[in-house]
């Protein structure tokens, strides 16, 4: 299997990982066949824990399905954290693969099967084949897709119990060819805020809207007006996205409902911008409703925070990755995504960086979170090599 982006296929690190590759391709396929949803990853966690224990790696559990592995060598207390997410998505797989999901309605549609296999592969190398002075903390994190397992692990004492100095993670990226590595400092992924709005009036007969307040009409005005916030209340240099994703109101075609409920999301890269937009959402929704004679309730629930790479840690990671990857396959210009990632909570606590591995394995782009997605197994060698090199360079 070619790995044309690697500089030296005969280095001791790459040679050893290539010997491991067939074993870990099978591990990845096993994990792909047996996906589990957020906060339900008990069999997955058991599998990871058993792998680590079989290699005599010290293990610990947090929040039920979070697995921590500790590899310590030498006398130093320098400590690097390497993180992989482990949960799957509520999607029915459409791939006709021999290792397709065996769990109806659940699949690894985001490549977390590949992420955790990559970290397992790195763990085996670091335990048996690497010399370093310090500690590698392996973080197998559940619940990335739903209620921020990273945040819950931190609240459960992750960095008090396992005090890493720096932390790194990656995500596969179908927008680039397999073998390409994308990394830059600054914002990588957006923060989120859930928007919930209820527009209320007394309701009435559809034939006589003048006798009441039409909540459907008011809701439509609010949806339109919300788009003025990014366009007219923020500098063009700043970024925010407001999307209303659901509207529910009414049960009959000839009745004006007394209530219309809407939900949506706010995405942003700067917490100060988030607070400015939240204040403006409240004002605009409440006053728009009032101007038409309705009332409105607004609930804004903060979710994931932005994922922001720390400059010094990013520079270190780039230097480390450059020793492995050919220059033409290393990119520093990826545009930040308005998607969200709970690794941002770890980067808010510890300096570190988040990078991407290209995962375009065919002529037809298969996006993340779709029923036809699959992780490219060539990334197991590339990703594990980068994890290992980061640890070896940090713990020289």
Walk me through this protein's architecture.
By secondary structure, the protein is an alpha/beta fold. It has an 8-stranded mixed sheet with strand order 1-2-4-3-5-16-6-14, with helices on both faces. Strands 7, 9, 11, 12, 13 and 15 form a 6-stranded mixed sheet that branches. Strands 8-10 form a two-stranded antiparallel sheet. β1 and β2 form a beta hairpin. The chain is elongated and about 80 Å long.
Itemize the secondary structure elements and their pairings.
Blueprint: H1 12-33, H2 42-54, E1 58-62, E2 66-73, E3 79-85, H3 112-128, E4 134-141, H4 149-155, H5 158-161, E5 166-177, E6 181-182, E7 186-200, E8 204-205, H6 215-226, H7 228-233, E9 240-249, E10 255-256, E11 259-268, H8 271-291, E12 295-302, E13 307-309, H9 311-322, E14 330-331, E15 337-340, H10 343-349, E16 352-360, H11 378-394
Parallel strand pairs: 3-4, 3-5, 5-16, 6-14, 7-15
Antiparallel strand pairs: 1-2, 2-4, 6-16, 7-11, 7-12, 7-13, 8-10, 9-11
Portion in helices: 25-40%
Q: How many individual β-strands?
A: 16
Weakly predicted, low-confidence segments: none
Strands across the major sheet, in which order? Answer: 1-2-4-3-5-16-6-14
Largest sheet: 8 strands, mixed
Mean pLDDT: 97
Figure out the total of helices. Answer: 11
- Distance between the ends: 31 Å
Class by SSE composition? alpha/beta
> Can you write the helix and strand succession as a string?
HHEEEHEHHEEEEHHEEEHEEHEEHEH
Radius of gyration: 24 Å
Strand content: 25-35%
User: What's the multimeric state?
Assistant: single chain
Globally, the shape reads elongated
């Amino acid at each position: 299997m070619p790995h044309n982006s690697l500089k030296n296929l005969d280095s001791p690190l790459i040679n050893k990982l290539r010997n491991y590759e067939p074993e870990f391709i099978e591990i990845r396929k096993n994990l792909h066949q047996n996906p589990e949803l957020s906060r339900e990853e008990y069999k997955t966690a058991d599998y990871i824990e058993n792998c680590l224990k079989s290699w005599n790696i010290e293990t610990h559990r947090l929040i039920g399905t979070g697995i921590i592995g500790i590899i310590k060598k030498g006398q130093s207390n320098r400590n690097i954290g390497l993180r992989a997410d482990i949960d799957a998505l509520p999607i029915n797989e459409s791939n006709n693969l021999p290792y397709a999901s065996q769990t109806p309605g659940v699949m690894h549609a985001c490549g977390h099967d590949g992420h955790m296999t990559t970290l397992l592969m790195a763990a085996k190398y670091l335990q048996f084949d690497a010399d370093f002075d310090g500690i590698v903390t392996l973080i197998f994190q559940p619940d990335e897709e739903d209620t921020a397992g990273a945040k819950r692990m931190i609240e459960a004492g992750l960095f008090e119990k396992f005090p890493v100095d720096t932390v790194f993670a990656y995500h596969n990226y179908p927008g680039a060819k397999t073998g390409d590595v994308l990394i830059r400092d600054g914002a990588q992924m957006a923060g989120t805020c859930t928007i919930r709005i209820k527009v209320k009036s007394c309701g009435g007969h559809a034939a006589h809207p003048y006798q009441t307040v039409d909540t459907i009409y008011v809701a439509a005005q609010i949806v339109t007006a919300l788009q003025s916030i990014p366009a007219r209340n923020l500098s063009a240099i700043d970024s925010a996205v407001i999307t209303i994703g659901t509207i529910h109101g009414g049960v009959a075609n000839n009745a004006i409902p007394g209530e219309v409920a809407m939900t949506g999301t706010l995405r942003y890269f700067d917490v100060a911008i988030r607070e400015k937009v939240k204040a403006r959402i409240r004002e605009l929704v409440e006053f728009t409703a009032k101007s038409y004679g309705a009332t409105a309730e607004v609930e804004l629930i903060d979710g994931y925070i932005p994922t922001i790479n720390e400059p010094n840690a990013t520079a270190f990671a780039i230097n480390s990755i450059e020793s492995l990857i050919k220059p033409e396959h290393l990119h520093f210009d990826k545009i930040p995504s308005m998607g969200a990632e709970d690794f941002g909570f770890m980067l808010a606590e510890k300096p570190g960086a988040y990078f991407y591995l290209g995962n375009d394995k065919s002529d037809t782009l298969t996006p993340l979170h779709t029923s036809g997605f699959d992780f490219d197994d060539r990334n197991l060698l590339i990703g594990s090599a980068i994890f290992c090199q980061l640890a070896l360079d940090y713990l020289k």
